[in-house]
Amino acid sequence: MNTRIYLPAALLLAFPACDDPDDSEAGEIDDVVVDDGHDAGDDAIEPVGGSTGGLDLTAALAPQTIVGGGPASEGEYPFMVSVGFAGGGHFCGGSLVAPSWVLTAAHCVQGRDPATLSLKIGRTDLNNAATGEIRSVSQIVVHPRYQTEAGDYDNDLALLALSSPSTRTPVEIAGPHTASDRVWWMPNVNATVIGWGALWEGGPGSAILQEVQVPVLTDTYAAQAHVYGARFNRAVHVAAGPMAGGLDSCQGDSGGPLLTWTAYGWQQFGVVSWGDGCARPDKPGVYTRIGSQRLHRWLRSVIHETPAVGDVNGDGRDDIVTFTHGDSGAGPLDVYVALSNGTSFGAAQLWADWWAHRGHAPMVGDFNGDGRDDIWAFTEADVYVALSRGYDFNGGVYVSPYGSADSDDIGRVADVNGDGRDDAVLFAADGTGDVHVMLSTGTGFGPKTKWHEYFAPEGETPMLADVNGDYRADIVTFTQSMNGAQAIVALSNGSSSFGAATVWNSWFAPAGEVPAVGSFNNDARADIATFVRNGNVYVGTSNGVNNFASALWTSSFGDWNDTLTVGDVNGDYRDDLIAFTQDQNADVWVALSNGASGFGSPYVAHSYFAP
Ligand SMILES: [Ca+2]
Ligand SMILES: [Ca+2]
Ligand SMILES: [Ca+2]
Ligand SMILES: [Ca+2]
Which residues pair with 237 in a beta bridge? Predict the structure, then answer.
């Protein structure tokens, strides 16, 4: 087994402090010619043009591969990054995923000093100094659970903060809106992997970026004994490559992107991590599964704050809340609130600190039924709640029975039994379709019990809303698959279960759209909505029995990069549209529902919130 980092022996000697899990493998690529540019004192200033990636270019110019591929065109992958040593050579790939963040593999950078790293962004030929951008690294954030689970190189992810933002366009990462993007990287889809790594197992790298197409494999295949067995962990790994071998990523490609071509351009769903050799039969490349719920959530929570919407002071108008995140022991882990005045949101106020680490899923909901929404966090093993006092969240903390949550689950908060207190609902992301509920007692949680046997299996987008107006929240899922886009409902019986799953709309929120639930018109029943990338928002109004009737309510709201949601900003019992841009401006946009057929003109309701 080996990771796909490029670390020739000479490089290890030059950086003895930079130990690597893969030391023992370095000999496999010792025929790579290493230049002498790795002395920090030798080349303190980036020798634009001279940084060859430590490769013998004459040997690397053979017209092949990554393994079995071919050269990329100039400008084809503007988000591609070469991770190298300052004044030295390439050793890993990476990808620009936000203006100030580069994604790579944990095993490439763990334990390193950020000051020793240099990034080349958007360069195809590592020798061509006229192209791309050079950036230094101010911070390395390694996944806190890297290498702590059962499989090989679990959670092999790291983010590098850039010293100054890149001007290149970042690549989109899979799963930004729960699971709707899963459709683009289903098994058998042909994915693309790119890198400057070895052209064959044990061979030299390439100065010219290489690309190759590899089929996405099923988890079942990758977990077979003759493939990777238990070393393959489906929660965090995805395998790609022909079963017969011949096409693969290899040493020097580690940290680079595994990409799929969607209707909207490139999307990254994997990070080059490890494999047995390169391009061997039944030994495909194994990639970090960044499209999984939990890894996407972690990535997102490093790059951005997490916004939420709820009425935290109990005046009937929904307010906005943001969770800043941070790591255990490091912070910041603040929670800010901006209260609605009926039209816009006031100044941000600090209402809590030390809440929701990176990767934990924060939410808001009224745990004790006093009309004020409280803050929640779904962690690896528990559900936490802190009560609102109307001016902060220091009204007491409650924790679920230990082990009741799983970081792969999709957690939701809603009142399923109609007692006015929001309950915790957990949708299993392991494909079983189990739905569990923990009822709120107002001062604690009841036992975790199964309320549905099969609802919203992996790849769907589950939500809760009272669609029949009996004050009990029902479960709703959007299938969002390649050949179907159903909205399916199972009604709460108020005490122990959700009923039979029934299709209420047979075409709503197909893959690539962002679904939501809310009450948009003047009845007491919750409806559904979907945000389309072109700015259209459709609403499906509930008839309370068996149907959501779809209509276009606006054609000018939101941008795909926004976090799109709904809430009742003005307290008229109708949900309005809310978009958090989460960019440098971090504007919050609102469009008010007219209660019948449309949303008003979008306006900025807060000028800087949840960047
Ligand atoms: Ca309020
Ligand atoms: Ca409350
Ligand atoms: Ca309840
Ligand atoms: Ca209901």
Answer: 288
